[in-house]
Design goal:
The protein has six helices and no strands. The protein is mainly α and 109 residues long.
């Protein structure tokens, strides 16, 4: 319960920063992570898209977007996002493992 409360407080802080004009991609990226923790997946995806539009670290954002899509059972889209993350960070072992996990869910190896 306390963890949920902290996530909600963090979300409120990010929303306040955005309300007062923050254009920082990191705010959108972090907001996406909090929303995913709160299982508000569609809102998390929208925040990640906003982060990408503001030139956030593309490998990190595409990776988090991939994880969110995976949790939603949207494996093809998750794979596509993971592949985009790998364009920016080829050889990153966590992304390679993430990709293998997605392929496993799709019945491909």
């Amino acid at each position: 319960m306390e963890r949920l409360k902290r996530h909600q407080q963090a979300l409120d802080s990010y929303d306040m920063a955005l309300k007062y004009g923050s254009r920082d991609a990191v705010v959108w990226y972090a907001r996406g992570g909090v929303l995913r923790s709160l299982k508000q997946f569609d809102k998390a995806l929208a925040s990640y898209d906003s982060a990408l539009a503001r030139n956030a670290s593309p490998a990190a954002v595409w990776s988090e977007k991939s994880v969110t899509l995976f949790l939603m059972g949207r494996y093809e889209e998750s794979l596509s996002s993971c592949d985009k993350a790998l364009i920016y960070a080829p050889g990153r072992s966590d992304l390679i493992q993430q990709r293998q996990q997605i392929l496993g869910k799709l019945g491909r190896k």
